Amino acid sequence: MNSTGPKWVVVTWRLPSGSSTPRVMTWRTLRRLGAILLTPGAAIVPFSPDLLEQCEWLAQRIGESGGEAWVLPVTDLSEREEATIRERDRATREQEYGTLRTQAEGLRGNTRRRTTLPSRRKLLALERGYSSVLARDHFKASGRGPARRAIEEARRLRER
């Protein structure tokens, strides 16, 4: 291991066939962490003590479900591999931010065409969605700002 420590955390797993519950739990946890799927049964996240701990927790849950999992801190990847991982992550986050932006713009459009205001519930759902994407946006996708501005504009229309 080099002196700078790990830069990535790889999680590999194998689950028994049968119940889909462990697979769904694994997928949802990895999605929440912003993991980039490498292959079926392997994903990677940038290293942080928090992400390492969460990956170890996931591996434990997989083991409790009758599967096997390994959490592997990785110090180096090739430039090409890192670029591919970063691009996959950014593309996924761009799509998620784009969906939020479109939803917020839809609320603004509805307000302009009619006298109804965006509901507080819909605005809160957009805010929660944005916070969720932001938490897993490891490489600062460019769609972050436009999504935030669209949500703020929808909120301003509600507050008028």
The strands making up the biggest β-sheet line up spatially as: 2-3-1-4
Number of strands: 4
Task: Write down the Rg.
Answer: 19 Å
Please report the number of helical segments.
5
Structural class, please? alpha+beta
Given the C-alpha coordinates, what overall shape results?
A: globular
The level of helicity is 55-70%
Largest pleated sheet: 4 strands, antiparallel
Strand content: 5-15%
Instruction: State the end-to-end distance.
Output: 57 Å
Low-confidence stretches: none
What is the ordering of alpha helices and beta strands?
Answer: EHEEHEHHH
Mean pLDDT: 90
Question: How would you portray this structure in words?
Answer:
By secondary structure, this protein is an alpha+beta fold. It is built from five helices and four strands; from the N terminus they run E-H-E-E-H-E-H-H-H. The chain has helices at 21-33, 49-64, 79-113, 120-135, 144-159, and strands spanning 8-14, 36-39, 42-46, 68-74. Strand 2 (36-39) and strand 3 form a beta hairpin. Helix 3 (79-113) packs antiparallel against helix 4. It is globular, with a radius of gyration of 19 Å. The mean pLDDT is 90.
